[in-house]
Design brief:
Layout: H1 3-17, E1 21-26, H2 33-42, H3 56-60, E2 71-78, E3 92-93, H4 102-121, E4 126-129, H5 137-143, E5 148-149, E6 155-156, E7 164-171, H6 191-195, E8 201-203, E9 206-207, H7 213-219, E10 235-237, H8 241-245, H9 264-268, H10 271-275, H11 279-287, H12 298-308
Parallel strand pairs: 3-10
Antiparallel strand pairs: 1-2, 2-7, 4-7, 5-6, 8-9
Helix pairs in contact: 1-4
Length: about 300
């Protein structure tokens, strides 16, 4: 089987597994990322996400993560919901966190994809990732031809939008690479920048994470700083404001994955239930159910809820 036929067969399997898109890039150093990422760290835009500076060289070259790697297979999984939160609900959850933790779904399917590659080409060295290692996913998605990065830094897939998870299969198997995606999908549009209430998008494609509502409600383990406590617009876990403003997301269609469907608190809870959340219910509805909301401590979520109530 030629490297082209091998790549085509793998993409067909990816579609059969439920992935929205699949592309291939040649493993190597992301030279263009080095100066941009270095400056972003130097400016302190990563805030208290100290891990962003760890394993710097591995972030730039997947061959350091998977010795002998020749190819980076990138997949996208749609997570746009068919059911939203109740319209009268003050407290909002980012759509990616409506259902159960997506990492398990992504990794399981990536392992199935790797097993299929073994069947096609024989044994190969590989690792799979889904937002779980120092892998610049959006950069690899561009290299694999999936789409381009918007001014809000989200990956936009043409005619599908940006409500997608990304995952990678880094393998020693040689596959025909796709052409990198170099088209500008934004043009003069600045809707995402204008919509952000905290002005976290400080320039096209440049995000100051310390101002981002997703960072403030999840990554920042401390209480939300006073300057932002009245700017979270009801968001208590993550934020979709810039994605909601993006014209490309008019193409978003509901996913078909039951595991990503809204858990009962997301689909049914009233403001009263959110505001009176006890630690016992936090454990019952989020920790035990495998919800992404369990990423934050109970005390952090309560602080987020208090901030949201001041909108």
């Amino acid at each position: 089987m030629t490297i082209k036929h091998l790549a085509d067969a793998l993409k067909e399997k990816a579609r059969a597994l439920g992935f929205e898109a699949c592309g291939v890039a040649r493993a190597g150093e992301l030279k263009a990322v080095r100066p941009v990422f270095t400056e972003w760290l130097r400016q302190g835009y990563h805030g208290k996400m100290g891990y962003m500076g760890n394993h710097f060289e591995k972030r730039l070259d997947p061959r350091l993560l998977t010795p002998g790697a020749r190819s980076v297979v990138v997949v996208a999984q749609n997570y746009y919901p068919s059911r939203e939160q109740p319209p009268e609900t003050t407290y909002r959850i980012a759509r990616y966190a409506y259902g159960k933790d997506y990492h398990f779904l992504m990794k399981d399917r990536l392992k199935q994809l790797a097993a299929h590659l073994t069947d096609l080409s024989g044994e190969h060295q590989y690792r799979v990732f889904a937002d779980s290692a120092p892998v610049p996913e959006r950069s690899w998605a561009r290299e694999a031809g999936l789409g381009g990065t918007g001014k809000n830094t989200c990956l936009i897939i043409p005619r599908k939008g940006s409500f997608c998870f990304l995952g990678e299969l880094i393998t020693s198997a040689e596959l025909e690479p796709d052409k990198p995606f170099n088209k500008d999908l934004c043009g003069q549009c600045t809707r995402c920048m204008e919509a952000c209430p905290t002005k976290a998008i400080i320039a096209p494609g440049k995000l100051d994470a310390t101002r981002c509502i997703s960072y403030l409600t999840i990554e920042l383990k401390d209480a939300i700083p006073g300057a932002f406590r009245d700017q979270c617009r009801g968001w208590i876990f993550g934020c979709d404001i810039c994605q909601e403003a993006c014209p490309h997301n008019r193409h978003a269609k509901p996913h078909k994955e039951p595991v990503l469907d809204p858990l009962p608190p997301v689909s049914h809870w009233t403001d009263k239930e959110w505001a009176s959340l006890s630690k016992k219910d936090f454990i019952k509805h989020f920790q035990k159910e495998g919800s992404p909301l369990a990423r934050v401590k109970y005390e952090k979520l309560i602080d987020n809820i208090r901030c949201a109530a001041t909108k």
